[in-house]
Write a structure and sequence with these properties.
binds zinc ion; about 100 residues; alpha+beta; globular; two-stranded antiparallel sheet
Length: about 100
């Protein structure tokens, strides 16, 4: 299995190549370089292709299961292999709401 990277929005291992405009199948965030500051992801930077900041996208993901409400029918649950620590933290927050 090739190495995958964490989606900056939902935290699942769904990204083949970072900053390459791939769409996460779990939350539909488009992984674009604009929200990266080096290797750090910033949640307060407006992402042009995603039309929002990462903080807004994560909030939407917790509420609707997608980074935008209208995309919630296109997303899917993460597989066991895709679930890592950062996803679990986000999922915890979903349960709390
Ligand atoms: Zn994602």
């Amino acid at each position: 299995m090739s190495r995958k990277y964490e989606c900056p929005c939902c935290g699942c291992l769904t990204v083949d190549k970072l900053k390459a405009w791939s769409i996460c199948p779990v939350c539909f965030w488009e992984d674009e370089g604009g929200v990266y500051d080096g290797d750090t992801v910033r949640d307060d930077v407006y992402s042009v292709p995603n039309h929002m900041t990462l903080a807004q996208a994560r909030d939407n993901y917790r509420r609707f299961g997608a980074c935008r409400k209208e995309l919630s029918s296109k997303t899917r649950e993460p597989t066991e292999q895709e679930i890592v620590g950062s996803y679990m933290r986000i999922a915890e927050k979903i349960k709390d709401n």
